[in-house]
Amino acid sequence: MSIAVVTDSTAYLTLEDRKRYNIQMIPLSVNLEDGSYEEEVEITASEFYEKVRKQKSFPKTTQPPIGKFVELFEKLAKDYDEIISIHLSSGISGTYQGAIQAGQMVEGVKVHAFDSEISCSPQGYYVLKAAEMAQQGASAEEILSTLEEMKTVLRAYFVVDDLSHLQRGGRLSAAAALVGGLLQVKPILHFEEKVIVPFEKIRTKKKALRRVEELLAQDAANGNQLQATVIHANCEEEGKQWMNQLAEAYPNVEFHLSYFGPVIGTHLGEGSLGLGWVKKF
């Protein structure tokens, strides 16, 4: 049985990885004052942050039209028997639900939609593992079982400079944003039950990043083999510096650098940093 792997743009996979594993990507869009752009296709992350600085209104994001899914699934149905479609958390976007609906509309191929319950590079961990297993001839059931197992050993935390982005975008309660703003708190956020919630409230960004490192250290103890990604919102040098410090301290962890693109960057804001990791299978 031949299996195609699909994801959306918020996994922020490199073009090289998508080509290497033949991963298909459906873009989400960001709406700015001068028009709507498909991220990873019509606008880069750096272009997005530059535009946002110049505009007065808050950007908005849009999930892919179901028609985009149907078009891609019908195309894949010509060469594949099954499709595994992996998407950002259903708690912050309807993209996953769109994949389910499109799968029910397409004939000749079985579509398995998978809710990553997260986003960005950690979402990409699932995609790359699925594509790797598909190339090795694993069945859809084996792949989906492995992805579910990964959920138990995958972690991601992020620190934002300004909670108002999440609050205005409807991804964090007004109360949580108000408390953070009044106390000048730099909360560590994470996904819980598919939505973004505070993990711990820390007074400074430096201390917050140190706390995230402590959480990584717990999972990296005893030589556990992990892959990890430092994720930045248009603060690449700060991200690289943190990644290099972590790589020196944890030689048993394979580190990479990624970014918060336009759609997720809309909700987190420029200057945010994140760290995600998963145990190697």
Automatic annotation (TrEMBL):
<protein>
    <submittedName>
        <fullName>DegV family protein</fullName>
    </submittedName>
</protein>
<dbReference type="InterPro" id="IPR003797">
    <property type="entry name" value="DegV"/>
</dbReference>
<dbReference type="GO" id="GO:0008289">
    <property type="term" value="F:lipid binding"/>
</dbReference>
<keyword id="KW-0446">Lipid-binding</keyword>
<dbReference type="Pfam" id="PF02645">
    <property type="entry name" value="DegV"/>
</dbReference>
<dbReference type="InterPro" id="IPR050270">
    <property type="entry name" value="DegV_domain_contain"/>
</dbReference>
<dbReference type="InterPro" id="IPR043168">
    <property type="entry name" value="DegV_C"/>
</dbReference>
